[in-house]
Amino acid sequence: METEELNQQIKDLLNKSGLTFGEVRAFFDGLQYLSDQKKKDFIAFVGKDTRLIYPLYINFKAKLKALASDNKEEEWAKIVANEVKELERYIKEKGIPEK
Q1: Which of 1, 2, 65, 3 is nearest to 28 (CA)?
Q2: What are the distances in angstroms from CA 93 to CA 36, 55, 59?
């Protein structure tokens, strides 16, 4: 797939997510830094459950804020810990067996 086609697929998914226009635009702009393979992975992952987009967007915004913080490492660690909790909850809700 070409980058342009992948970008359109991402836009389509984001537009189905319930994010506002500004949120879609901000998240899409951030996702442009992904490689084409990572974009394909993102599409495959959120394409199965678009409800995942909002929590991913919130974590994206939190990471941007952490990068601007004076305590980058501490803020980043908190965000990652929160992401792990969210993923564990999602896995439990979906009944996905742990490896």
Answers
A1: 3
A2: 30, 15, 20
Containing H/E element for 58? Answer: helix 53-67
Q: What is the CA radius of gyration of the chain?
A: 14
The domain ranges of the chain are: 3-94
Say how far residue 28 (Cα) sits from the centre of its chain: 10
In this prediction the pTM is 0.80
Tokens read off for 80? 């990652």
Render pLDDT for 14-47 as a digit per residue (tens, 0 to 9): 999 989 999 999 999 999 999 999 999 999 989 9
Nearest to residue 78, comparing CAs of 45, 46, 86?
A: 86
